[in-house]
Design brief:
The chain is α/β, with parallel strands linked by helices. Helices cover 39% and strands 28% of the residues. The chain has three domains: 220 residues, P-loop containing nucleotide triphosphate hydrolases (Rossmann fold, 3-Layer(aba) Sandwich), CATH 3.40.50; 82 residues, MTH889-like domain (Alpha-Beta Plaits); 42 residues, no CATH class.
């Protein structure tokens, strides 16, 4: 039966020894969506994608891609997806044409179908001038284009892209994002990245993970409002002030702004101007611009900028991935930390673990035996 859900994860959990890389991850990606899969380094993004592309299996939970189970029907899953890992696995002694032909043959395309698909891939990925070149002679940006080409050559309905712009220069990043938006018009795309600007440019929806858990999932505007805050940007001239008033030191200005009613946080922002620039956050249902203005008048500050807008995705990302006591360690999560957390989780979920399937029980028994030997 046809369904609009192209990717579905149900309770995905993955353990590597004592480290729980994924912890009961649930999400759906529907037909035609371009979804950003966000998280700090070590959050579980690549692990999730390797499960969805059948490179590894989950410890518990299930996942389906194009209605095919990744464990029960991995070949159909692979036929349904185009996958670009973080480092495109290219054979550098081949020419671009030879490599794309090789990828097409692996996918079972005949010569006539390959020629039709090659024409479209070359057009979309901008490879017309590179088909006869050895891959070893290409820049990193052009190698990523070739990687996208092999992911597209069999015309899959689903693309899974794991940090496709990593290590690219700004011009190359812009080109790859343009290609992603172009090919995303008639495909489902799951785009893993920790670059928030890329998500805002290419995606309408995002899933944010931290420490192997989903902490936000929805349209970007909804995620920006998830913390219930709005942001204010205030810029104060550092050199000019009204007669009889000294320009404020950054610390003094920040302290004065922090004392205003309704201000939750104040953070100084870098600026090239001879000025102090601050980002403030306040409650979503209030507007404190009048209070900020009156403070500036009272202090004799010269306001260069005062604006109120939605909480930035960057600020929400920081709140969601560092605000919780168990999530604020980010990418510096050590094996010792993982062991402590695993022990705490196991103590708090004994009853729930009793209901887990036989495979999970066998894996936990193997883990326990391994720990005993060590």
């Amino acid at each position: 039966m046809a369904t609009d859900v192209m990717i579905q994860a149900n309770g995905l959990t993955k353990r590597f020894g004592v480290v729980r890389a994924l912890d009961k991850v649930n999400f759906e990606v529907k037909r035609g969506e371009v979804v950003g899969f966000l998280g700090p380094n070590g959050a579980g993004k690549s692990t999730t994608m390797r499960i969805l592309t059948c490179f590894i299996s989950p410890s518990t939970g299930s996942a389906t891609v194009n209605s095919h189970d990744v464990f029960d029907n991995p070949l159909e899953v692979r036929r349904s997806i185009g996958y670009l890992p973080q480092r495109a696995p290219l054979y550098t002694d081949m020419t671009v044409w030879e490599y794309l032909k090789f990828a097409a043959e692996i996918r079972g395309l005949d010569d006539s179908t390959f020629k039709k698909r090659l024409k479209k891939v070359v057009e979309v990925c901008g490879l017309a001038q590179s088909l006869g070149k050895d891959i070893s002679t290409l820049s990193h940006g052009y190698r990523q284009r070739v990687g996208l080409g092999q992911a597209l050559i069999h015309d899959p309905p689903i693309l899974i892209l794991d940090e496709p712009t990593s290590d690219l220069d700004p011009n190359e990043k812009a080109e790859v994002l343009r290609y992603i938006k172009e090919i995303g018009k008639d495909r489902t795309i799951l785009l893993s990245t920790h670059n928030l600007g890329e998500v805002e440019e290419a995606c309408a929806r995002a899933i944010i993970v931290s420490k192997g858990r989903v902490v936000a999932d929805g349209p970007l505007d909804d995620i920006r409002g998830k913390t219930g805050r709005v942001r204010y940007v205030v810029t104060i001239d550092e050199q000019r002030a009204e007669a009889g008033n000294k320009p404020p030191a950054a610390a003094q200005a920040q302290e004065a702004l922090q004392r205003l009613g309704g201000v939750k946080t104040v953070r100084e922002l870098p600026t090239d101007e001879k000025a102090h620039k601050f980002e403030l956050s306040g409650a979503q249902d209030s507007d404190i611009r009048a209070e900020i203005y009156r403070l500036a008048v009272a202090k004799g500050w010269t306001l260069l900028e005062l604006r109120r807008d939605a909480q930035s995705l960057d600020a929400v990302f920081r709140d969601l991935t560092r605000g919780d006591e168990k999530l604020d360690r980010g990418a510096n999560w050590s094996a010792a930390d993982a062991a402590d957390e695993e022990e705490e989780d196991d103590k708090s979920s004994d009853d729930e673990d009793d209901d887990s399937d036989e495979d999970d029980e066998e894996e936990e028994a193997a883990d326990a035996q391994s720990k005993g030997k060590s």
